């Protein structure tokens, strides 16, 4: 089982890769506000877990397993942020709260929240 910090790194790699261009450890460090040594250690663990690959230029790519986790977490983040914002929560607070919840909420509860939000949108 991947820890929350690993999920956060994978989510960040996904977000950065969607912006285009290669993803490097320094990009992750800047985006997350972490030190380069901390990111380097994390990348080593993610590589050992087969969640990422690094090429000869140290460019980082998600493996299928890493991408699946990243997309799951990012999907939860965006859905929860949208729900909280629709409830009147400030967008920055909504995003911060979603980030706290996205790693701990069970699949069952998240699916119930997602269904409820869909009913709200349908009116």
Quick take:
The chain is mainly alpha-helical and 123 residues long. It has helices at 4-18, 25-32, 36-48, 64-86, 91-101, 107-122, and strands at residues 52-54, 60-62. It contains six helices and two strands; from the N terminus they run H-H-H-E-E-H-H-H.
Please identify the oligomeric state: single chain
Count of runs of 4 or more consecutive helical residues: 6
CATH fold-level label of the largest domain: Arc Repressor Mutant, subunit A
Give the strand order of the largest sheet, numbering strands 1, 2, ... along the chain: 1-2
- What global shape is seen? elongated
Q: State the secondary-structure class.
A: mainly alpha
How many strand units? 2
Relevant CATH superfamily of the largest domain: Winged helix-like DNA-binding domain superfamily/Winged helix DNA-binding domain
CATH architecture classification name of the largest domain = Orthogonal Bundle
How big is the Rg?
A: 16 Å
Helix content: 55-70%
Explained architecture:
By secondary structure, this protein is mainly α. The chain has two domains: 65 residues, Winged helix-like DNA-binding domain superfamily/Winged helix DNA-binding domain (Arc Repressor Mutant, subunit A), CATH 1.10.10.10; 51 residues, Diphtheria Toxin Repressor, domain 2 (Orthogonal Bundle). It has six helices and two strands, in the order H-H-H-E-E-H-H-H. A two-stranded antiparallel sheet has the order 1-2. A hairpin with a 5-residue loop joins strand 1 and strand 2. The longest helix is centred in the middle third of the chain and has 23 residues. The chain is elongated and about 50 Å long. The model has no long low-confidence stretch (mean pLDDT 92).
